[in-house]
Amino acid sequence: MKTPTSLQDALRSAAETDRGLQFFDRSGKLSIYPYAQLLIDAGKYAASLRARGIEPGDTVGVIFSTSYAMVQTLFGILMAGAIPFCLAPPRLGRGSDYSATTARMITRARAKLVVTDDSILNSLQKVSSIVPNQFIGVSELNGNETYFYEASSNSPAVIQFSSGTTVDPKPILLSHGNLIANTNAILTRFPGDLKDHSGLSWLPMHHDMGLIGGLFTAIVGKGNGTFLRPEDFVLRPGLWLRALTETRATISPCPNFALKLCTERVTDDELDSLDLSSWQIALVGAETVHLRTLRDFYDRFKRASFNYATFTPVYGLAEATLAVSFSDPALAPQAVLFDADKLGQGQAEEKPNGTEIVTVGTALPGFTIEIRNSKGEPLPENCVGDIFIRGDSIMAGYFDDAQAPEWLNTGDLGFFFKGNLYLYGRSKDLIIINGRNHDPSYIEFATEGVPGLRHERTAAFASETEKQSEGVVLIVERDKSDQQTPEILAQLVRDAVAEKTGLIAESVHILESGEIPRTTSGKVKRAEARRKYIAGDFKPIASC
Questions:
Q1: Strand partners, 458
Q2: Are 444 and 458 a contacting pair, CB within 8 Å?
């Protein structure tokens, strides 16, 4: 059969196989839905949406937790010719501003309709009061007719929102061609025969790694895909590893924090029942990859037959559809110790006992990556600069300003060293001290191991202006379960940062759990944290 030109075309092709989607629930029950069934069921939803007046090019929101109904709704919208966008359900939304943030995103995407699970419809009334008559429960999509809209590769496919770590989430418009190109590029990096692979993901589908890396890649690759609800993973991290054991999935993505959560919370009894020998590729991305976290996970789970070479650090961003570069899946993660002072001056040089950075490998097929200076001029290897990318997966543009860039400025800093790409933080988050640049993620990670907190609940930022600072401020959430005195905790944080980075924090502030702003995927929003700090919105329980 010809290469699919659209997502619904890819589903039609996958429906000719005996494969499909599986959903692993909290009790360990596995529900199986063949792609052939999804094609029919989504066609019925498409017909219902058309009967409600949804036309090709209309935008339709999707607010569910991970479920077959969500996937059926998503593909029903696509098969109606409309443009879906996925938003976090209330349970996964962070902070008291969930309703206002969700309403802004619905407005920016100009949604004609928002479809949600009946069980959470009542929880969305605050949002629907801002945008009335737009919400319907999925049970209202019913009927026996089917509909299938034939889209071209240039047709708009989905809107996905940027992570919102530095600014409000932006609506990114992706074409069917973008999605097919990126999923196919990802599939080329998987070793052996694709028929021998299957995927498993608990990542939320309002996040690009969950939606594109988990769902769309499985369908385009015609492979079995297993899914857990993200809230079930957070409640019981071992459930993810249990699902890998039982389904024998070979590919599963995992942000750094998920590995740490499993290392800390999976019990010895759970561990004794696990077999992770089938897991070949653990795509580690979405946040800075720290080798120590990978080593700790391996040390904990090697007795469950986990192979350290399974870890595959990757790099990507929503504006590039998803993936931009992969490290070599056949090799263990590669890290280099770099001179921190030289990095701060824009040069990458090796140094014993330096800053350890993990490579995210080389560009996927179809991508070109350049490192540029502030004037936009390409830089040679070993020079730190802005990461620019070009390729078929680059977004069609932002939905409210659909101009596809020839070269995309990712907003990330990085460099090439011996042919491999290394990341050095977000340019807008960069901390400048005495003329040297510092990646805040490495300052935050220096708090790893301090009792009474988790480094992923730490935000480091400049104390003065964004362009020239004189010191570093750290705000830290304490762990509710720990009895450490807040005043002692603040001093421990200061000492750890000084020991591991050589930087003396201007101030350290301890907050109660849940106060630091984060995105719906769990990333710290440093810029917003800095704004709240300057405005005096935080109420520290201890400072030093």
A1: 476
A2: yes
Is 499 exposed, middle or buried, given 0-12, 13-18 or 19+ CB atoms closer than 10 A?
Answer: exposed
Task: List Cα–Cα distances, 168 to 127, 133, 171, 288, 357, in angstroms.
Answer: 17, 25, 10, 21, 29
**Helix (H) or strand (E) segment spanning residue 160:** strand 156-161
At 253-262, the pLDDT tens digits run 998 889 988 9
Q: How far apart are CA 394 and CA 106, in angstroms?
A: 23
Strands (DSSP E) along 344-384, which ranges? 355-358, 362-363, 367-372
Q: Cα–Cα distance between 333 and 308 in angstroms, integer?
A: 8
Q: For residue 112, give the 3-state DSSP assignment.
A: strand
Cβ(82)–Cβ(148) under 8 Å?
no
Distance between first and last Cα of the chain:
66
Query: Residue 43 is inside which H or E element, if any?
Result: helix 35-51
Helix (H, G, I), strand (E, B) or coil at 515: coil
Residue 472 is classified by DSSP as E
Contacts of 424 (CB under 8 A, 6+ apart): 343, 357, 384, 413, 414, 415, 437, 439
| 520-533 pLDDT per residue, tens | 666 788 778 888 88
How many other C-beta atoms can be found within 10 angstroms of the C-beta atom of residue 409? 14
Domains of the chain, by residue range, sit at 7-310, 331-428, 431-543
Q: Other C-beta atoms within 10 Å of 349: how many? A: 15
Q: Which CATH architecture has domain 431-543?
A: 2-Layer Sandwich (3.30)
Spell out a b/e string for 363-385, using b for 16 or more CB atoms within 10 Å of the CB, else e: bbeebebbbbeeeeeebeebbbb
| One CATH from 3.40.50.12780, 3.20.110.20, 3.40.50.1110, 3.30.930.10 for 7-310 | 3.40.50.12780
Report in angstroms the alpha-carbon separations of 378 from 349, 385, 504.
19, 9, 34
Three-class DSSP labels, 182-231: HHHHHHHCCCCCHHHCCEEECCCCCCHHHHHHHHHHHHHCCCCEEECCHH
Q: Given this model, what pLDDT does residue 468 score? A: 46
Model confidence pLDDT, tens digit, residues 73-99? 999 999 999 999 999 998 765 555 777
Pick the CATH number of 331-428 from 2.30.180.10, 3.40.50.2000, 3.40.630.30, 2.30.38.10: 2.30.38.10
